[in-house]
Amino acid sequence: MMHRFLDTMWGQANAVLAPFRRRRWVDLLLVAAAFGLIYGLILVGREWTAIQRPQLEINLSLLALPKYTFFSMMRGVAAYLLSIVFTLVYAFWAAKDERAEKLLIPLLDILQSIPVLTFLMPLLLVMVALFPRSNTGLEITAILTIFTGQVWNMTFSLYHSLKSVPADLQEAGTVYRFSWWQRFKWVELPFATTGLAWNSMMSMAGGWFFLMINESLKVGDKDFRLPGLGSYMRVAAEKGDLKAEVFAVLAMILMIVFLDQVLWRPVVVWAQRFRIEDTVQNEDSQSWFLNLIRRSRLIRRWDHWRSKRRRKAHGRRAKSLTQQAESLERIAGLAPWLALGGLMVLSALLMLGAYGIFHLLAKLPAKAWWMLLKADGLTLSRVLASILVGLAWTLPAGLAIGLSQRLSRIFQPIVQVAASFPAPMLFPAVIAVLAYLKVGLGWGSIVLMLLGTQWYILFNVIAGASAIPSDLREVGTAFGFSRWQRFRNLYLPAIFPYLVTGCLTAAGGAWNASIVSEYYNTSGPILKTFGLGAIVQQATDEKDFVLLAAATLVLAGTVVLFNRLVWKPLYKIAETRYSLSK
Amino acid sequence: MMHAINANHEVICELKGIQKSFHRETGHPLRVLEDINLDIRANEVVCLIGPSGCGKSTILRIFAGLIQPTKGRTFYHGEEMEGLNPGVAIVFQNFALYPWMTVEANVKTVLQAQGLDEETIKAKAHRAISLVGLEGFEEAYPRELSGGMKQRVGMARALSVDPEILFMDEPFSHVDALTAEGLRAEILDIWDDAERNPSSILMVSHDIKEVAYMADRIVVLSANPGRLRTIVENPLPRPRDMRSPEFLRLVDQLHDIITSTELPDVEVTAPAPSLQPDLVEPLPPAPSSDILGLLEYLETQGGTVDLFQVAAATHVTFEKILSSVKGAEMLDFVDTPKRQVILTALGQRFVRANMDDRKDIWKAQLLELRLFRLVQELLELHEGELKADELLAELQQRLPMENSEQTFETLVTWGRFGELFAYREERGVLTPE
Hints:
The structure holds two protein chains of two kinds. Chain A starts with a helix and ends in a 6-residue tail after the last helix. Helix content of chain A is 79%, strand content 2%. Chain A is globular, with a radius of gyration of 26 Å. Chain A has helices spanning 2-17, 24-49, 65-96, 98-111, 120-130, 136-163, 167-175, 180-207, 211-214, 229-239, 242-271, 288-295, 297-361, 366-403, 405-420, 427-436, 441-466, 470-478, 483-517, 532-541, 545-576; strands at residues 216-219, 222-225, 519-520, 527-528. In chain A, β1 and β2 form a beta hairpin. Chain B is an alpha/beta fold. Helices cover 41% and strands 19% of the residues of chain B. At the A-B interface, α7, α8 and α13 of A face β6 and α2 of B.
């Protein structure tokens, strides 16, 4: 069966390709990739339905690495698909329903400030209880962890795009009587696509951060490992297998580069067609992979076949079109009720949740709250310290790179990969070095946080520096500014908006990282220092729900407060005073 | 009031007693339209013209059903309208094309929205595209096209749905002058076909010649809030010759009407203190730099010019010139008998003075206005730091019918130039110089 299918497929491809023999490898590659993917998905399916093992053996041989990498990648992709569905529904609802907007947007703000790891353990326990026999529960937990690392940014991006569709484009849609679906399809979604594509790329990168943790979960003495790159790295680190560690890092980098080149670059380039005119276009508008695909006869053939089918179908469809319109109208008529119902259910759930948490927290003594606040202060200072240290080196380095076209061509992709790389994978090595230098985790955790977050700042500084208009730089040269004058009067103000974005992202990352960097659980003795992150992690290990909930509340509260009081005003200044576009 | 030659034509849509206010975040709602009564009849071209802020685009949108009026009623073929006007398509000022769709897709999309079948869509799109001469450009994206070509796409899209009335909102203001001339003639040709839609055209414009060329009836509006001043019938036979004496006479007449409503020879700025002691003078949207430019220009022209020749010679819209002239007149730098703008003795002294003296004269003239005396008092009252929000609130009370934000903006540029006060936008405070 398979053979025959392959034969006909191949025969067809061969016939199509005959006049273009030189390009046959493109289609060969595509077909091979398709089969590889199918095989991989079968493996994933088997893994999901496999019986849950009490103890997962990770095979440290290099031959097993591609399989593990594929598993991890598929988790990331599945999480992304989930994210995009969530984003479309949530952002559209918030943008269109004024009543819901008042609840949904603040809720999103709070959700994005709750570190993923705090609800990982409760989620895991629920999932394992739901799917006690198979690995499905574990897989879902792992995917949801990645999902929460990706989704909030994407949702905000889409929401803001939907809110900023130019008024005349919307008016045209109204005058020409677009239904809500047509308006979404023809106006709103295309308008949002450019931003969404960019944001998807960045968010997917952010999602990898917890790869090493969510694939090798332990709650108490129970082991919930999943086969993947993260668990591979963990086991390699525990066994001190240096070769395996190095190759795992390489595999991770390879995967990031692969996804970037084969998935995101083409998507971003393709999305360019949806840009509104006159937007400055800094991005590379070329993708070798996209060009390759476009060259493929197989794909063209398929396109051709599809459009022919569509044309044929039109005769039939025309009649059913009125019916279709009617059913769409019916849905549109139901929408307000649906939205209202959803809103009511959501509010009820939120109130129930709030009540539950309040009930739980009432048990916590005042002394514990005081301890949490002290820990919060300490962790906050660590977060800020890591940003300051990050700024200290990324500012000069980023400016040097961004101001030189040659350097930014070389370094931009490297920094991008570094920013997507899950820093926790490097923790074992760094902790070993710290231990050798006799630096405790109290200070050492700042270094660990820095490891993940500095790249966001660097990335933004480079982007800002390369966006400084050349005439402004020429002024500095023409009037003989000193290096310091240039920095103070031009570079710093010009990159300020980028700097705020970078620091905000870095701070978010640092809070997340605090949970894994203040408390490090290896096979040996547990390393820890006093801090809010450590408390969260310890409460997870000891299944202390009350403390966990309280710590989460304090943490999320601090992040929300800090966003309101520090980042938002800074953003405002960046938008008004330091904006180069006005 | 509307003595019409078109009285025998059937009325298509009608506005009765329309009033419109927009809600602002700060305090009072802004009244943009007051008591508008207007109809559009079959087989005519109606043009709306007036200074900025007269709400002409708002009237068009109320006719279209895009905006609901605060008060008053709208009719379509004698029946009260609910929601969108079924007989209308719009050509937008900024084209409003979907940049991600080709020319053809932009047109087809609106036909698809009507639920037509593929064959009809194809035929109608083709007809509309060829009607405006876009054949061969079907596969082009809007970003590849010039302003004029883009507006052709906008026209094709509007015409494709076969509208009874074609609405055009300053359609040629982003198109270069030569192209605009061609497009006007073409759209009239299309309209002229009595057998086919569009039966009528409603156009918003700020170009008096354009209005005289296109319209059967010219609706002149005045600003703050927008009111209907007068409706001028245009009996000139088509096709019209823009150089014919009759045409020039009509343009002249329109100039006179607009100046007499906007710059009446009776002093408008003269305060009547005993009647309304709290009110202050509203300022036109004329930044100090514009007024300076106008005075310099007047000086080079020997101190006297015709208002509309300035607009023609400088390629600045007459609305903007009008604002600058109003501003200069408030400061006593110019006089405006009829359509003439004449530099006063003070204006002459001002233009010839050096920068320091200019600022002194400017400041002295500012303090002649009650508005600036008020600002000075408030500055003293608040001990040298006046919050912009407080001043705005004060202005809103003393300018109940006006756009106080706009007055505030002008006030800041005038005050800054006269060194009456400094304004820090970030902190939102005024401080004395």
